[in-house]
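Attaching the record inline, Q. Sequence:
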Amino acid sequence: MDITIKSLDGSDAGKATLADDIFGLEPRDDILQRMVRWQLAKRQQGTHQSLGRSEIARTGAKLYRQKGTGRARHGSARAPQFRGGGKAHGPVSRSHAHDLPKKVRALALKHALSAKAKSGGLIIVDELKSAEAKTKATAKQFADLGLANALIIGGAEIDENFSRSARNIPHIDVLPVQGINVYDILRRQTLVLSKAAVEALEERFK
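Structure, as predicted:
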């Protein structure tokens, strides 16, 4: 598929041909859902934990004698039914991560890129560079390009001035091509790729 390359000042900077096996697939929601679930589960801390009855600092003595009181038969004040007792079946520290095949992860990224291309939410720019680290000037460039909610992917390294000027703009994320991921692509309205990023992606999926 052919797409017009833009420059940051809004002018046309030529045309590019995108690989159909990366940007021209029919997006599958099930693959994208699996990938997003894998990403979010992987980053969960899993540090939530409550105290069970074996972890409560309380006396282990029997509350009262077994028979003759007319009350229920209790053996420990640490039992869950008592105030201050342990929690039954409470959360414990664990990893929420689960496995997802590498080929499925690669396919999900292709489908996310294809989804943006199909919906018209993909913009290719010639380069991501700023003469100076001024947020006001970069914000005006984004406004001229119609970028209000966007993920911007550069080459292997991001220009220092551009990175600094863009990081304070709300709803704008800037990442090197190594950091591209399905969740960030889908959560932002527009995907902006530099020419270097496109070349790196096509080389990656050869």
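The longest helix spans residues 102-119. The chain has two domains: 2-45+97-204, 50-90.

More tomorrow.
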